[in-house]
Amino acid sequence: MSRYDFATDPVADPQGVVAGPGYRFTVLTDGLIRMEWSQDGRFEDRASSFAVRRRLAVPEFRVHETEGQLEIVTARMRLRYDRQPFSSSGLSATVLGGLTNYRSVWHYGDDLRTLGGTARTLDEADGPIPLEPGVTSRAGFAVIDDSDSLLFQADGWIAPRVPGRIDIYLFAYGLEHAAAIHALHALSGDAPLLPRWALGNWWSRYHRYSADEYLTLMDRFRAEGIPIAVAVIDMDWHLTDVDPGFGSGWTGYTWNRALFPDPRAFMAALHARGKRVSLNVHPADGVRAFEAPYAAMCAALGRDAGSGDPVEFDVTDRAFMDAYFDVLHRGLEAEGVDFWWIDWQQGATSRVPGIDPLWVLNHFHYLDSASAGGRPLTFSRYAGPGSHRYPIGFSGDTVISWESLAFQPEFTATASNIGFGWWSHDIGGHMFGRKDDELTARWTQLGVFSPILRLHSTSNAFMTKEPWSFDEETRQAMTAALRLRQRLIPYLHTMNHRAAAEGSPLVQPLYFAWPQAPEAYEHGSEFLFGSALLVAAITRPRDPRLRLARVDAWLPEGVWVDLFTDLTYDGGRTLAMHRDIRSMPVLARAGAIVPLDAAAVPADDAGNPNSLQVLVVVGADGDFVLVEDDGAARPRIARTALSFHQATGTLTVHPVQGAADVLPALRDWTVTFMSATGPEQAGARVNGLACQADVARTATRLSVTVTQVPTSASLEIHIGEQPPLPGNDVHGRVFALLDAAQIEYASKTRVFDIVASARPLHVRLAELQDLALEPALLSAVTEIVVARWATM
User: Fold this and answer.
1) What is the pLDDT of residues 378-415, one digit of tens each?
2) Which residue in 87, 105, 83 sits closest to 96, CA to CA?
3) Taking the CB of residue 605, how many other CB atoms lie within 10 A of it?
4) Mapping DSSP to helix (H, G, I), strand (E, B) and coil, where does residue 138 land?
5) pLDDT tens by residue, 743-771
6) Per-residue confidence at 372, pLDDT binned at 50, 70, 90?
7) Which of 245, 375, 508, 763 has the greatest count of CB atoms below 10 A from its CB?
8) Cα–Cα distance between 394 and 198 in angstroms, integer?
């Protein structure tokens, strides 16, 4: 078998094919049709970079043919074609199902306005940038043009397209956006399962670290109680100050021994500290005569090392790619490199037209990363549709600004429209801009609820991201955020499994869940984070007098609880939310269950934890299946079902199913109910027998801890029938807001007297309006007063 071979199934079931002179249509699903035109009547059945699995179960469809017209009808679309070269008048499709008040009709060549996909890079972005198309739209259809993508031969090697042929895929899923993404994955391949450790915090900085300096930094993080799971070493690990006769120092494969005198010992020390190690590589300049592996590369390729001629980088040369992995990378991996940061910035052209070097690097690096038997991983830029098969994405070098931060939630969520779910951004921004402690804190908080949290910055002595390099409130906010990220890994890893098994990315736009609601398309700072959480990111500075930042958010129908502030909201509306520097709105609906690592400071490379905390939002029934594994490439999986029954007020941890031996034999469980009221004595049972339970209360939470529970046992925790969600302490919250505000004391008194009065809500709101308060203050007070408007 070729080292480049990989599993594909590119030839469609002939039962789904409708063909004639110059054309071929393949019905792949009821909402996905492949459309090809070829002047010579030949068509492409090899896998492409986008389409690797065309042999799908053929849905029911009808074909109507007349002398000048072909019509294909599925449950979702009606396609019409005049049997001529594709044109806007001759090829069209209507989306069925009454999507809009008018017919949703696609014509070949239409300039489609999809909901957007993603982009190759955010390099130098300072706010929004244009996005490539995705496969979702409010019109109900989208097109992926695969005519120019590279192909894979039977042995997995690459090949260019035959010029002039048309090969496009029409997605017609109406407003069922998630269904369109499932069809994308069915055709283009699944998102793979990430290693669990990749979901923790990453440290990266473009800086000339020495080995001792880097290890001292990692020890400082540990002393500060800040978990770091992945240690990224930027390009200065290799020689960068080279003779100009060789070119630049961006490309390199030779350790800088002045900085890293013993690379193997250095990476072993990182591994001993619980880190995984990644090295940056810019491969574009090939291998030059000063490099340590130059002679070995020449020998592998049958070239004369004495000539001093460079071994040029060429992804289209199979012999070069063999040596690229075997000579340049394998030895470094043996020294301790866990995965590679492929930093390709040199465009999409190679020696063969249509072969994009970034595509080839991503694809072959991913295959090669599995060669050692572990779970494969790459870290590189997005190369186009199909790139979701090669996580993790490096989004590039953004500008440090509020504008960059404001675009990042939307950019991340919108990438789900092309199935790309694992972006890693330069959290805090990369370059330019100015030092802004508040901006860094907010960016780090967003990083907690991003696919990957990787702190990074450019080569500048003043650009640091260590929390202790900022003012005290920012330091505390960043530290709390980084600890929370590591605590979230049980939830994140379950969503990692969901993404791989179901094609459901971790971060999604709101319209995936509420496609009919106009508001779901209007709030770019909001997104879904896994199955249980809705996040409204803070992306603008706080009001200097109120010391609160604002985000305008839409809450769908239901009752929602902010997991940071415990403030409870009635949904079905848009409202302004305000938060101090310690938090941003992260909301869960009644019935939500969110598992966390119970440790206040989890280990850097924690395995499946011995202690778990489970947040339960009472008010409705809820379920969650915690998924854990052994970390292998073909994992052995353990599933622990958690269920909450509102009528009885019972949270049940069911016995583990599957590979129980990948879990600790005994576990401590803390179940925290988002409820202000509860019985005087909460109870717990293990396998039906009463057991010791420790109960702790705050004004808005009830926590029950049971220790040393066998994972094979059933644990039930009871807090009383029909536990209610708490009413908000409006008076206390408004008083605290006013107390902290840098405003006139007289204004504080007038506002609080109105809020605390017994007059009807609408009267109090009118009186607050009449005070002519500054808008930020009026908005923040109103948020608290009307959070539970349905109960007023």
Assistant:
1) 999 999 999 999 999 999 999 999 999 999 999 999 99
2) 105
3) 18
4) coil
5) 999 999 999 999 999 999 999 999 999 99
6) confident
7) 508
8) 13
